[in-house]
């Protein structure tokens, strides 16, 4: 019965066949048979079809502010005093699947970095993973009943182990999806979430960073002025991932009524212009600058409706995403320099036999594990619906400082090779420099 529902032509909006294919790789393994995953997968396909909704056009979108229904929120995980760093079996299977894709990311990374664009073939393979279903509540066509912050942290870390810039590009729309699920009104959820559950999901991005010295996400120069039932946006944003490919943006702006808030802005809005920025790193993410000149949005475009959102919590989730990126990329650096130090000979022996080299690599490992533990702790508390501001602050400070240090030490350990673009360490170093200054794009 589930298979017939899956093939029905009445609900083409959800790419269930693609999702079933993704899981089918796991069904006949020993683990899959032990967990009876085939029956579980068929139930997911059936439920996804049953809860299907029709995608709507987001151009000139006005959301229903009179909606008296309650927006869907994923339940928090039950509180647990035990801090378990091990992934469960489901998470490990997801990680293994993403690791296979990350290998392809690594192989294509140099060409992508040179050309500032990800190939359509790689985008297609990523879309086939259908990670959005692991974010969306069951009632909205997804698979989830509880929050999956730790799982998403693991996804981002694994993607960044392949390539940080590509990971930012691939996950930016999932970050927008997370924000809509966590903070959006019922109308915003019903109108926008189906766009992410198609065979070729739309691309959307978060725009917070501004081209100002010592930028702080809490001190915005982008202004949203209320006029009647509309907001007028003026200002600039930079370092916006996939700005030229995005259908719409979640834009942070300062308001008089609700202080800093997030607005859903269509790319085709009059007065909004996008310009590609050639940056030091993150070339795969095609960073752009957005200019807002009297851009008009309806008051219903404010994320969370008239009451807005907890902006500080929104920023904390963004920082958590960047911490995950840093951990994955730093793991890639460490995995590269260890065999290099063992194979590279100087004065008749491997350079890893030199105390200065061995101690530097040991310090990198210690710092990386500290970054990972702090990030996992913050993600775990967020997943349980607890206040995680202190934890994510400590994780972000650690990842900003030690992430750049690990990248720099990676270049140093390779000597002259570390400065040559034929080796990936210099690219990882350039990408890691962005962790301390960027808030855009990632929201777990």
> Which CATH class of one domain applies here?
Mainly Alpha
And the CATH topology of one domain? Answer: Butyryl-CoA Dehydrogenase, subunit A, domain 3
What structural class is derived from the secondary structure elements? alpha+beta
Strand fraction: 5-15%
Q: Would you write up a description of this structure?
A:
The chain has 444 residues and is α+β, with helices and mostly antiparallel strands. It is globular and about 75 Å long. 46% of the residues are buried.
What keywords describe this structure?
13 helices; Butyryl-CoA Dehydrogenase, subunit A, domain 3; seven-stranded mixed β-sheet; 9 strands; two-stranded antiparallel ribbon; 13% strand; Butyryl-CoA Dehydrogenase, subunit A, domain 2; alpha+beta; 444 residues
